[in-house]
Amino acid sequence: MFTLDEKHLDEAKQIALKHRTKKSCGTCYDRGWVGVNDENLLILCTKCVDLEASMAEWKAYVAQHEELKEHFAELFEEQEEEQSEKETDKVMPHDVKNPVAKTPKNYFIPGQKRTGLKKV
Ligand SMILES: [Zn+2]
Description:
5 helices; extended; mainly alpha
């Protein structure tokens, strides 16, 4: 059975810590994780960790380690599907960009006076 090497587990803990979104958390005691499963994989704290960002970084880490890639192959299969979807969205980029660029929303800001600056 697959069990994650301790050195990779340590890395996963660092990733969890990095992506915590709250200062104090009673669920994980500010560690960002609540335990490990029977594969020695980190169980992230769902209360305070940005799970999407953590998984993205974990994926990038796995990609650098051949021995992990095999076990986490399904992570990369999903990624490939997402990419092909995005490519179909980009078929007509010109039609999308032009109307947005012609709307100068931030050009005029009413009520902003600079009189205070002159006293300096
Ligand atoms: Zn937490």
